[in-house]
Design goal:
By secondary structure, this protein is of the alpha/beta class. It has two domains: about 140 residues, P-loop containing nucleotide triphosphate hydrolases (Rossmann fold, 3-Layer(aba) Sandwich), CATH 3.40.50; about 60 residues. Helices cover about 30% and strands about 25% of the residues. The strands form two sheets. It has a six-stranded mixed beta sheet, sandwiched between helices. A four-stranded antiparallel beta sheet has the order 2-1-4-5. Strand 1 and strand 2 form a beta hairpin. The longest helix is centred in the C-terminal third of the chain and has 16 residues. The chain is globular. The protein starts with a strand and ends with a strand.
């Protein structure tokens, strides 16, 4: 089980954001995607999860182009982008039930409440999401991770943004648990975080276009 980037390139308008990106992620690996604003970090993540097509190269899952796998590949990953992707009219726990069902892994109300409790949202679990702060809404989205440990690949765009110290610690614990079970994580962040369970901690420097 591997994720490979082969000669990936991305063009936006007349601008080449990046070219010749190559790496391989294996079970237990965590890779941080670093770079200045505008270097193509989010564009790369969207390409890696199949939401955007590369201008050059291809993304491979177990040696096969993800464009030919489609639903099979999507069933293996969780992607959390900049937008929280929560529905304002639903309670926090209902958002988890709906999102987990869409991922093909239905959960109970009790499981959703437990996932929210792990991120300090026990008291907010029954509130409509519109009533929550930005940081709380972020944690509702992130609670999907503890319900998606069976998904081997996590691709996370700035998952630590808007979190307080305790929530950052809880999220690191969830990611560490995933890595210890052989999961793979690709993430962006401007913070220094310690993922102690990673088999390999890699860093892809988008300004240089190579692993550092």
């Amino acid at each position: 089980m591997t994720l490979q980037a082969h000669q990936l390139g991305c063009i936006r308008g007349d601008l080449q954001l990046f070219a010749d990106i190559n790496f391989e992620i294996q079970p237990g690996d965590a890779m941080r995607v670093a770079g200045t604003n505008g270097s193509g970090k989010t564009s790369l993540l969207r390409i890696l999860c199949g939401l955007s097509a590369p201008a050059q190269g291809e993304v491979r899952w177990d040696g096969r182009n993800i464009r030919s796998l489609r639903d099979e590949f999507c069933s293996k990953l969780i992607y959390l982008g900049h937008a929280n992707g929560v529905k304002d009219d639903l309670a926090a726990w209902e958002n988890l039930v709906v999102s987990s069902t869409l991922m093909g892994r239905p959960v109970t109300s009790d499981e959703a409440h437990e996932a929210l409790d792990q991120l300090g949202l026990a008291r907010a679990a029954d509130l409509p999401t519109r009533a929550l702060s930005q940081g709380q809404r972020k944690r509702v989205a992130l609670a999907r991770l503890s319900l998606g440990l069976a998904m081997p690949l996590w691709i996370l765009d700035e998952p630590f943004t808007a979190l307080d110290v305790s929530a950052v610690k809880a999220l690191c614990g969830t990611i560490d648990k995933h890595l210890a079970c052989g999961g793979m994580v690709i993430y962006t962040t401007h913070q220094e975080v310690d993922l102690s369970s990673a088999r390999r901690s890699l860093c892809l420097d988008m300004n240089q276009g190579r692993l550092c």
